[in-house]
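Please fill in the sequence for the structure shown.

STRUCTURE ENCODING:
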């Protein structure tokens, strides 16, 4: 797996995951919607940790700097 996520992209994903976690913890969202968003949050954190997003590969997107 080649990295295809830049620093800004990873930071935004982690911040979104934190916001989702806070909303779930504060009971602002609940039920099935909370479960679905929680799964998205976990996926955002995991893809940020490994710097690789499978969807970016499918669409040919790269947000990281390439080495020449």
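FILLED IN BY: designer on duty
SEQUENCE:
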């Amino acid at each position: 797996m080649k990295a295809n996520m830049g620093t800004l992209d990873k930071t935004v994903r982690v911040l979104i995951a934190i916001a989702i976690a806070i909303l779930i913890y504060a009971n602002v969202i609940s039920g099935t919607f909370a479960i679905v968003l929680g799964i998205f949050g976990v996926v955002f954190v995991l893809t940020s940790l490994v710097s690789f997003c499978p969807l970016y590969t499918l669409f040919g997107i790269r947000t990281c700097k390439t080495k020449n």
